[in-house]
Amino acid sequence: MRLLIASFRKDARRALRDPFALALWLGIPFSILLVMNLAFGGTASSGPRPQGVILIADQDETLLSGAVSSAFSQGPLGEMFKPEKTTEPDGRARMAKGEASALIIVPKGFQSAVLDNRPAVVGLVKNPSQSIMPEIAGQSLDMLAEAVHYMHVVAGDELKMISSQTDQPSDADVVKTSLAINATVKRLTQYLDPLLLDLEIKQPPKKEESKPFNMFASMFPGIVFMSILFLGRGSSDDIWDELRWATLRRAQSAGLPVTAIVGGKTLAAMLTAALVTGLALVLGWLFAGVTVANWAAALGWLMAGAAVWYLAMLILQILAGARERGEIFTSLVVFPSMMVGGSMFSFDMMPESIAAIGKLTPLGWMVARFTSILGGAAPAASVLAWLGVMAAAAAVLFMLSARLLRWRFLKG
Amino acid sequence: MIEVDHLRKAYGPLVAVEDASFTARPGEIFGLLGPNGAGKSTTIGCICGLLTPTAGSIRVSGHDVVASAQSAKRTIGVVPQEIALYEDLTARENLDYWGAVQGLGGAALNSAIQEALQSTGLADRAREPVKRFSGGMKRRLNFAAGILHKPKVLLLDEPTVGVDPQSRVHLLDLVRGQAKAGACVLYTTHYMEEAETLCDRLAIIDHGRIIAQGTLEELRSMLGERDLLRLTGVFPEQAVRAALAQEPELELLGFEDGQLRLALARASERLSRLFELLGAAGAEVRGTTLTRPNLESLFIKLTGKELRE
Ligand SMILES: Nc1ncnc2c1ncn2[C@@H]1O[C@H](COP(=O)(O)OP(=O)(O)OP(=O)(O)O)[C@@H](O)[C@H]1O
Ligand SMILES: [Mg+2]
Fold first, then answer.
1. Would you say residue A44 has pLDDT above 50?
2. How confident is the model over A291-309, as pLDDT tens digits?
3. Exposure pattern of B258-289 as b/e (b: 16+ CB <10 Å)?
C-alpha cells in the first residue's frame, strides 16, 4: 500500500507538472464543441463568425435543387457561409485556386430522383487547405440527405403523386397536385431550415413543455469523454519516458512490484481526469445549462471511465512496443471511437441507425450512461450496476496490463 | 555480504557471464574491474534480481536472490550504470520517490533526503527539475538515490563516469563512508586507478570470466614484476654504470642525457641505498619517478591486451 501511494504520488506530480497538456486535454474537445455549437447551435448569438465561400453548381435548376443552395444561405449556416452560384467548370477552376471552402454540384435529375426516392448524388469538393469550414459544409449536406429521407417518411405519397404526373394533367389533378405541393413545400421548408430537424423529428412526443434544444448540453457528455480519451492516450504515452529513463528497471530492482507501478499510474490518471473533467462539469453547470443530477455519481463515472481508458491505452502502448507505433495503435482506437461513440457528434445529431451502433461501442456505452446520470434519468441501482461493470472492466485491464508490462519490458 | 557461486548468465547463444564466483564481505569494498562488455552490469543485474541467472546461485545478506527475492532486495541499494531518474521531477522529488520505494517514510525519509542532498553537493539545486542538471550532477543524484536507505549491500555500477575530479573524490569518499559504516560494497569500474585506490579486494573480469581476484597486493604479486624507476639529473656515465653494475636484481633500461631508467624489485625499500651509490659515483639526482606494477600491467599480462582500448 505504501509503495502504491509512493508510485501514485510520483505520477500525479508528474502529470500535474504539465499544465499545457492538461489544458490541451480539455481545450481540444471544447474547441470542437465550440465550433459545432457555432455551426449547428440554434440560439441567436452575436459576434463575428467565420465566413466561408461555398460554390453551388446547380445543374438541375428545380425547386429542390434550389432548396439545397438556400439551405446554405438561411439560418445559422447562412451566417457562416456565403453561397455563390456557379457552373461546374468555373467552380472547379475557382476551387483549384483555393477561392472557396467547398463546391457543391447538384446534378441534373436531382429533384426527380429525390421525389422518386431513387438515390440522388450530390457532389462535394472540399478545399483541402481549410479544415473546419469544408467539414461543416460536408456535415450539412449529410444532414440534408437525412432530411430527404425523413421527407419520404412524412410526405411520400404526395411526392409519388407529383412525379407520376403525365404530360397532360386534368384540372382536378392540377388542383390536387398544387395543394399537395403546397403542403409538401411547407413541410420541406420546415425540414430544410435544416439543422434542428433531426431533433424535432425524433422527439415529437415531448410536447410543448420540453426545454429548447441546448446544443452545448447535448454534446457535453461526449465532449467530456473525449477529454478522457485524450487524457488516457496522453498519459499512457509516459511509459516510453519511463523506459527511456530506465526508471522502471530501477524501481523493479528496488523491489517495487509491477502492480504498484501500474496502479499508481492508473490512480494518477483518475485524479487528473477528476480535476480536468470535474472543472468542465462545474463550468458547464454554471454557465452553459448543463444539468448535473448527481455530482458524486457523475464524478465517479468519469473517474471509472478514466481508469478503463487509461489501462486500455496502456495495453495498446505495450503491445505496440515503441512510442511511434503506440501513437498509431491508440489513434486507431481513439478516433473511430470518438466518431461513432458520441464524442464528435452527439447521438441526437446522428442518424438513428448509426447512433444505435455507436451506443454499443465502449465509448458510446459510457457516454450514453453518463448522459442519463447527468440528467438524473438513471435510478441509483442502475448507476451502481454500471459502475460495477466499469470496475470489473478496469480490474481485468489492470491485471492484463501489469502482466504485459512485466512480460514485455521487465523480465530478465 | 554477497556470495556469488558459479554464476552463469547467457542471452541466447551469447554468454555474458561464465562461472563467476566471489564473496564480498560487510565493511569491504569489492571491485569488479573489466573492459566494456566484460559482464560487470550483467553480474550486478543478477545480484539485484533484475536478471535471472542461467545457472549458479547468489545469496545477498543470506537470502537467495531467486528464492527469496523480496528479502534480498530489502537489503540492497543499487546505483545503476544508466542514470535512472525522472527528468520532469526535481532532485528532491526524485529522492522522495526513490526513498519511499526503498521503504523510507516520514521524518526518516526527510532527513535522509537532506543528508543525501548535502553530501552530494546538490542541496542548493534541490528544487530544480532534473532535466536542467548537467551530466555530472545527474550522476551525483543517481548515486544519492541509491544510498538513501543506508543499505547493507550497495551495488555501484560505474557511478563516477562523467563526474569531474573534485566531485569524484567526494563520491569516492561517500563510498568509503558507506563501507566504514558496515555496508558491503560491490563497485564496478573500468578505471584502474579508481579500483586501485578504492577497493579492498578486486576481481578482474574479461569476456564474462573472472581471470584474477584478491587484494591489490596479492594481484600485484601475481605479476612478480619489477618496479620502474626513472631518475633525472646529472649522471657521469662511466662511474654510474660501474656503480649500478654491482647492485643485484637491477636492470639498466636506458641511459639518456640527464635521464636514467631502471627496473628493479622492491624499489621503494632500496631508494636510499641507490642514492648513496649514485652520490658516490658523482651523480646528482634532481627528480625521481617510481612506477609500481599496476592492474593495467596485470591485465595486459593476463589477457595480452590493454584494459582501455
Ligand atoms: N539484454 C541483453 N541481451 C543480449 N545481450 C546482452 C544484453 N545485455 C548485455 N548483453 C551482452 O552481455 C555482455 C556483457 O554486458 P554487460 O553490460 O554486462 O557489460 P559491462 O561489463 O557492464 O560493460 P560496460 O563497461 O560497457 O558497462 C555484452 O556482450 C553485452 O552485449
Ligand atoms: Mg556496464
1. no
2. 899 999 999 999 999 999 9
3. eebebbbeebeebbeebeebbeebebebeeee
| Bigger pLDDT: A21 vs A87 | A87
Q: Is A249 on the interface with B (CB under 8 A)?
A: yes
Contact yes or no for B119/B171 (Cβ under 8 A): no
- Between the two ends of chain A, the Cα-to-Cα distance in Å is 26
- Verify that A22 and A115 share a domain, yes or no: no
Q: Global pTM?
A: 0.71
**Mean pLDDT within A98-115:** 81
CB contact under 8 A, A245 and B45: no
Phi/psi of residue B124, nearest 5 degrees: -80, -5
Topology given in CATH for the domain delimited by B225-292: Alpha-Beta Plaits (3.30.70)
Superfamily name and number for B2-220: P-loop containing nucleotide triphosphate hydrolases (3.40.50.300)
- CB-closest option in B45, B87, B102 to A254: B102
CB-CB under 8 Å, B86 with A250: no
A398 within 8 A of A308, measured Cβ to Cβ: no
Cβ atoms B227, B247 nearer than 8 A: no
| The C-alpha cell that represents A87 in the structure block | 457552373
Chain A residues in contact with B74 by the CB 8 A cut-off are 255
Whether residues A250 and B80 touch (CB distance < 8 A) is answered with yes
Q: Which ligand is nearest to the CA of B35?
A: 1
Contacts of residue B92, Cβ cutoff 8 Å, sequence gap at least 6: B113, B117, B126, B127
The answer to whether the complex's ipTM is over 0.90 is no
Among B7, B14, B50, which residue has the most ligand 1 atoms within 8 Å of its CB, making it the best to mutate?
B14
pLDDT classification of A209: cutoffs 50, 70, 90:
very low
Find the helix or strand (DSSP H, E) in which B71 lies: helix B69-74
Q: Cβ contact (<8 Å) for B101 and A255?
A: yes
- Where, residue-wise, is CATH 3.40.50.300 in chain B? 2-220
Q: Name the 3-class secondary structure at A350.
A: coil
Domain assignment of residue A168, given as a range: 52-192
Nearest CB to A17: which of B50, B73, B88? Answer: B88
Within-domain flag for A132: yes
Q: How many helices and strands, by DSSP H and E, does chain A display?
A: 18, 4
Q: Ligand 1: which atom is nearest the Cα of residue B12? A: 4
In this structure, is residue A155 part of a structural domain?
Answer: yes
Residue type, B259: Q
